[in-house]
């Protein structure tokens, strides 16, 4: 049990580092291109609450402030969760090369964030422009690279890939 907890915590830490990288790259893109923040995370929180018949407490501004706080937390949950999943896979014997691990971590983070938005009808990735895809892919690749690097460097020496 303690071993599994350590694995999960290493993965969560790696996922948190990757999520920080994703956010830094995303916010830098907003600064460089003067693009607005996406409203899809907040739309997803509202739609998910409605779908699950959950009420977000408060009215008016108080409720909207809660939605604004919940929206980024869903991204952190996806990033930390993906890091934990990668650590579990690694502990179970999954040891592909570095590039496949980057790709799986990046794709997992993409699916974890865009999947719910797509399923809930918030966005349709088939309609995205090249610019939309670049704005989404680049931060998720940063997530994958940082998450895998941190996970590699937090792993016990005997299990590190060579």
Gist of the model:
The protein has 162 residues and is mostly helical. It is built from five helices and no strands.
What do these coordinates show?
With 162 residues, this protein is mostly helical. The chain has one domain. It is built from 5 helices and no strands. Helix 1 (2-33) runs antiparallel to helix 5 and helix 2 packs across helix 3 (60-91).
SSE map:
Blueprint: H1 2-33, H2 40-51, H3 60-91, H4 98-119, H5 130-154
Helix pairs in contact: 1-3, 1-5, 2-3, 3-4, 3-5, 4-5
Task: List descriptors.
162 residues
Content-based structural category = mainly alpha
Mean pLDDT: 93
Number of domains: 1
Q: Main sheet?
A: none
Q: Uncertain runs with pLDDT below 50, 5 residues or more?
A: none
Supply Rg: 17 Å
- Shape label: globular
Helix content: over 70%
Distance N to C terminus = 27 Å
Order of helices and strands: HHHHH
The percentage of residues in β strands lies in: under 5%
Number of helices: 5
Count of DSSP E strands? Answer: 0
